Structure formats: C-alpha cells, structure tokens
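Hi,

Apologies if this is the wrong queue. I'm a grad student, and the batch job for Nucleotidyltransferase family protein from Marinospirillum alkalitolerans produced an output file that my downstream script rejects. I'm not sure whether the problem is my script or the file. Here is the sequence I used:
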Amino acid sequence: MKNWQDTLVQPTASLEAVIEKLDLSAQQILLVTDEDKKLLGTVTDGDVRRALLKRLDLSTPVVQIMNMQPKVATADWSKARLLSFMEQQQLLQLPVVDADQRVTGLETLHGLLQKPRQDNPVFLMAGGFGKRLHPLTKTCPKPLLKVGDKPILELILESFVHSGFHRFYISTHYMPEKIREHFGDGSRWGVSITYIHEETPLGTAGALGLLPYDEINLPLFMMNGDLLTTLNHLNLLAFHEEQGGSATVCVREYEYQIPYGVIESEDNRATGIKEKPVHKFNINAGIYLLSPELVKRVPFNTKMDMPDLLQEEIQSEKGVSTYALKDYWLDIGRIDDFNQAQSDVDQLIEE
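Support response: The file is valid. Your script probably expects a header line. Output copied below for reference.
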C-alpha cells in the first residue's frame, strides 16, 4: 500500500480524531505508533463502533479502544503467505513490521487480490508414454487427452494461471511435437513456456537437471501432467515458506482394507483377531515445491526418481515437509481413472 503512512496515529489521539482520520484515509484501519513508528496497536471501524455503543466520550484516547495485540507480517512474507494468513485469520488489513516492531507498510486484502502475479517457476511433467491408457495414448500423448473439452495438461496450466503464475517449463519425451504445437510459447494464456526435452527418459526427477539453473531463483512447483486437482497453489506455497526446508511433497491419505480376518499371534498362541482391518497410508500425490538449491543439486542429464532425490534430502536433514492434500485429487493413470475424470470435470470447473 503506497499511502500506508496516512494510517499512522499517535496514542494520544482522541476518538474524535480517530474517526476523522479513518474517514480521510479510507482504509478502515489506523496503526497506533509511538514517535519511532513502533506499532502499539490498531484501530478499525469496528473498534470505533463498539466504542460509540459503549457511549465513550469523543475525547477518549485511542489507547483505550485499540487492539493491543494485532496480527502482523514482516517484509519477507510472500504474497502467497500473506493471502493465506489473512484468509485463515479473516483479516482485511495486515500491518508489516521490522524486527523492532516498527511499521514499514500495510497490506490489504483488496490490494493483494488486485495484483495476482506469482514469479515462482512451474515445471509440468509431460514426457510419459501413458501405456496404461492404451489404446488412447497410441496416437496422442497422455497430457493431451481431453477431460471434458480440454486436454489434461491445459486444465493444469490454466489452474496455475488463474492463481497468478506465468513462468512455465514443460518436460517432453513422447510425441513432443504435439505438445509444443498445442501450447506454443504460452502467449495464448499470457504466460511464457519453455520446453525441456528428454532425449531418453530420465525418471520422475531427472528432468530437473535439464532446467536452466540461472533462471530458478524461487521455490519451484513440480507437478505430474496427468493430475486433476483443485489444489490451492497459494496455500501450498505459503505452507512451504512457513515450514522452511528444501522440499515439500503433497501427500494423500490412502486406505487399504485387508479382505480377510487377521490373526495376531505370539509363540503359536493367538493374541487377537481383527476382522478385515483397514490400514491408512500417506501416498505421494505427485505435486512438489522444491527450493532453488535442491533443483541445482540435481545432476545434468542423469536418470533419477523423485523418491531417491527426496530420500537424499531426508538423510541429509535438509528438511522435507509433507502437505496433506484435502482437495479433490485424481491421478489419471488408467482407463477407469480417465472415465472418472470425465464425470467429475464439469463440477470441478463450476467450483
């Protein structure tokens, strides 16, 4: 917010002065600071209404009605983290302070929503053969199979574009010319697309080693090109930044029921019986956020799978977080999944 200084008010200001300044600033909030701009509290339209309902005199000092424990952000918070925090706390404004609690700015929900541009790179994996979807993929790469009236990969791309992302990389191998022909340079969506071609399949992580490292200076989204999901990308980005570490992997809870009664025993004696028990696991959802440093550690043109890469990070204690995916998610790997996607897509687009 360019005019955040207009919201500053001294603790000696009266309720009457506060009302006048709220009206002039038109921001629905004032920041109460001392002479060094250290934040002491905040006053909103709601605080003023409550004061008037209590019939407080207009000469009442602002310190008697202000919120003395306001939520704050710091200048290093990304837009994604700001939006996620304000949504969780149901805030319309959020003061920005330095390490000494001095005010350096004011973010507003309206202002953040007016500038939906995210500079994080997005890497979409579209090089697979899709053998389990034969015969559909004999003449068409799996990412170009249509779900509803659009290819799977286009739905994924547009979901990121809707969230403000504009820097895309797409890995190709199988029928790369068809993918390039459909998406071009990305100008149709107002974004840039760079293609990363695998001459030979490099596994689920190896293509990272083909990226132009000098362009990867922010956490990178990496996502399989055969997923249908309503994931909130900004919430995931905010989570990754809050957790720190080199990687965040999205996980999905998967239940498996053993179709038999299970006998527990010890020394040939039964100790318990469980009828068709259900086991729950967190499975890899094929969506990741990777730090630039991790991306740059992937060797050039070397076959590598994502579980191996993440295991190295875990063993090195560089920090790998898990993000529980509660949103709709479907891995379109088999014909049954593809048919399910056709049934789901219209409702998902409406949402």
